[in-house]
Amino acid sequence: MQTVQQTDYDAFSAKLACLSKGYLPPNEQSLTMPIKGFVPLYQGYKDLHLQYFQALKSGLGGRRLASKISRTIQNSQPVMNYGTYLRTLSIDIPLLNYINELPETKQLQIVNLGCGSDLRCLQFVNKQLFPQVTRYIDMDFKQSIEFKQSVLTKSHQELLSGIYEAVPCDLNNIDETMAILNKLLSVKIPTVFITECALCYMSQKESQILIDSIRKTFLTGVWLSYDPIGGDEPNDRFGKIMKENLLMSRNLSLPTLLIFNSKDTYARRWKEYDQVIIENMWNFLQFTISPMEQKRLQSVEFLDEIEELKVMQTHYVTLKARW
Ligand code: SAM
């Protein structure tokens, strides 16, 4: 298994930690501006994840993986849990907003590039909630997709309608990626592309070609992306330390962390798009999450390290690029 694929288990453990501690799901008072469909989106959210986790445990090699995930959940720190909470909402909110803008009769396709074990597929293929969503494609390395498919088959077979497909693919292979997208989707239907902590693992050249190719191929849509940025202040060592730590401890490479090190440099990659909005996650917390919800989050676990949270969250961004 490639080290980059293992990052998915960290993401999934972090999500479970947030659910078990009570950060997630959010509620009707979580946002400064209420959004239609926000609360229903998280109905059954915890069970969805626990059922997946149960099925994962009973699968091949699942026991070892499950005990690793359980350890990570137990050792989760408040700053990390805040991060996961914010990261989840920073994709869900613009995705819901985009859906809400479309007339109910209009169709919509969603593609999660580097999906890992993310279970948004189960939330958004819900016909009652989102009649517009006619296609949901998950893409990741072959091994990750086979694993996800086997767990989903055990845990959520009934939810996976003909709308959903999980497809193996190396995103750095642009010809293969674009061939799959062209085959499975209609380029005329509005399409949402999600990259949640996925572009940061891709090489610079290929990620740029992917961003440009999707813009050229699909007539209209929105790209939602979440990633760390290295930081561009002269004394900022966040990115350098993160990059070195991951390389040393896990042999994991973040090829563009220090290149797209600020909001501006990160957003410039979508220069061919019509409207690009980017925000760091500290500001996302301040402006999108209501004061009441911020209080609730503080009461979930004692968080002493506000400065640490701020440093960390100013080094993560959420981007929305429309065309
Ligand atoms: N997006 C998921 C989430 O946020 O829960 C998973 C995030 S995980 C940190 C990164 C994922 O990107 C992994 O599942 C990994 O296998 C996938 N990934 C990274 N580079 C990839 C590539 N070149 N092709 C396909 N998948 C890739």
Keyword list:
323 residues, alpha/beta, seven-stranded mixed beta sheet, 14 helices, 7 strands, 50% helix, binds S-adenosylmethionine
Explain the overall architecture.
There is one protein chain. The protein has 323 residues and is of the alpha/beta class. Helix content is 50%, strand content 14%. The longest helix has 24 residues, at 78-101. It starts with a helix and ends with a strand. S-adenosylmethionine (SAM) binds next to helix 1.
> Bound compounds, please?
S-adenosylmethionine
Instruction: Please state the structural category.
Output: alpha/beta
Radius of gyration: 19 Å
Number of helices: 14
Distance between the amino and carboxyl termini? 36 Å
Apparent shape: globular
Low-confidence sequence ranges: none
Number of strands: 7
Major sheet: order of its strands? 3-2-1-4-5-7-6
Largest sheet: 7 strands, mixed
**Which range does the strand content fall in?**
5-15%
Helix share bin = 40-55%
What's the helix and strand layout?
Blueprint: H1 3-21, H2 38-41, H3 45-58, H4 62-74, H5 78-101, E1 108-113, H6 120-124, E2 133-140, H7 142-156, E3 164-168, H8 174-184, E4 191-196, H9 204-217, E5 221-228, H10 238-250, H11 263-267, E6 275-280, H12 281-288, H13 291-300, H14 306-313, E7 316-322
Parallel strand pairs: 1-2, 1-4, 2-3, 4-5
Antiparallel strand pairs: 5-7, 6-7
Helix pairs in contact: 1-4, 1-5, 3-4, 3-7, 5-14, 8-9
The structure holds S-adenosylmethionine.
